């Protein structure tokens, strides 16, 4: 899922909202074999349609509010991402005034979708097995119990190329609060990985271009008399594929530990629910000093990101990376610049 960081008041616990099991039993059902080794696919609801109906019934008032506000059809298997991104927009702009019931429904929606989407994610992984088995292995390898390890992950060509962190950072700061539509497609809902890929390219990393969205790392623009037509690989614009393609350098659920390891020029990821998928990605432009900020002690750092577009210190009101400290959420350092 492509996600933006959201706001949670310090006294609230994220974990109390996350109850995917309330809507149905979910489990790992299938495996894939790659180079004679079996890997579990992602956990899915045993009865996805029933889980959907249970979620809709439990959160009816909230879903009706989102449906009317954003002119959506009733929540279904085809439009659940629309509900997520519209909910993110609603939550990001109204968190301080929202009733607790809406906050709970928003976070429950995030958790529900994080399991529900795995049916589609597993189909993508199976396709990856046919085209890029090494990338599939990096996605399916279980790192949930590893903390602060340097992962022996898939070393792609893009990771081995030198990234100019200064040029990348300049681009990140120039375009953090706007969209570079002169050269790239802009996703109105979920632009974080697309923006990270642009930063990589601005820092000198060359695209690896195929005519297959499941291969390489690329973006194409074709000019036509009707206007530009854009296409891209999954690794260019989808957060969890971007994270695995670029490689996971370290993982922790502790903000103080995470912040102490960061360097300017780092790409970072957030797994909001701890299921192993990176849901949101950002770029570190600056690091600061250790101090107590908003009741938490950590080394401040400045993040450029899209979806919710900003370049802000974590200690600032608009930046909400600190909200996921502790619990089952996980922070990642992704590709590390040379």
Explain briefly what this protein structure is.
This protein is of the alpha+beta class and 338 residues long. The protein is built from 12 helices and 12 strands. The chain has a domain at 14-133.
Brief descriptors of the model:
338 residues, alpha+beta, six-stranded antiparallel β-sheet, two-stranded antiparallel sheet, 12 helices, 12 strands, 36% helix, 19% strand, globular, Putative amidase domain-containing protein, Amidase_6
Folded structure, characterized:
With about 350 residues, the chain is an alpha+beta fold. The chain has a domain at about 15-135. It is built from 12 helices and 12 strands. It has helices spanning about 50-60, 60-70, 80-95, 100-115, 120-130, 135-140, 155-160, 165-175, 190-200, 235, 240-245, 255-260, and strands at about 25, 30-35, 35-40, 45, 220-225, 225-230, 250, 265-270, 280-295, 295-305, 310-315, 330-335. The strands form 4 sheets. It has a 6-stranded antiparallel beta sheet. It has a two-stranded antiparallel sheet with strand order 1-4. Strand 2 and strand 3 form a beta hairpin. Helix 2 (about 60-70) crosses helix 3 and helix 8 (about 165-175) crosses helix 9. The two termini are about 30 Å apart.
